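Quick start: what a row looks like.
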Amino acid sequence: MRYFLTLCLLLIVMQGISQPSVNKYQAVDNLILELGPLEKENVATITDTLTSSFTDKDKKARAIFTWIAQCIELDPKASRTNDDKNTEPENVIQFRKSSPLGFALLFQEMCSQADIRCLVVDGYVKYNTENINNIPDASNYSWNVIQLGTSPNEWYYVDAAKASGYLDKKQTLFTRKFSGEYFFSNKTVFNLEHFPDNQAWLLGEGTRNIKEFYSLPLIHDGAYKLTLSKPNPSNGLIKTKPNDANLFGFKTNDASNITNISIILGEGAKQQKPERINFTTKGNEIFFSYKFKKEDTYPVRIIADGKDVMSYMVESSE
């Protein structure tokens, strides 16, 4: 276990932390990297070690978030089967892996010990394009909201599970890929990727109901860097005919900075090479059209400047 956790930490340092170009929490992240996995410590001791160097609550919360996302893994089996039996914070610390609920409960407990108001939100996410328009029977995901002030605008989203990395399509393999975008996430993008089962915890504007949410395209973490909004088409299932033009677009914080839009058809063994697309801008909106030549049903991934942004499922037939 010690060798595994040390190796994971070294890999994180080597690959770097996926962050915006200006990261106000870089010093916090660096300190957490130096502290390492803190093996054989309990939740209370780890929390105190992580937060004792900071006075501001947002930095304490960031320290907790970064440590959890770097030192806890998503459990493929528990995530795939929605098994939440080992989600108590001490169990998560012991096994160093859990379902999304385990991540959320651990973050909540550590925040509580650091005197930060934090709640767990149960809800829904889409794991792949096959989930588009397929509403599950029960909630399949959990994340957190934390409060740092009295204003409604001082509630923030945190998703330590997604920040830790991702599972493959079959949810059998976890790949670590830390992303700071899931701390105090952009609310517009977060609401395109998550839907709470209690809409009281929908911070900002979002979809009106679960049916509308599951009809949206699949949103990827690259959308956060662009502060993506208004994906077009808004329906994630595209029904078209071969060689018919399909209009795509999205709004971003600065369209003028985007230099490359690419599209990838298929996945796995059937995945094609990225195809660079000609696009136009109008204000902060990106537009392009594409003709699907192949008759079949397949996922389509859109990439902006090398970052996965969103995916659709295409049904192309005469």
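That is the whole record. The chain has two domains: 2-216, 229-316. Residues 1-21 have pLDDT under 50 and may be disordered.
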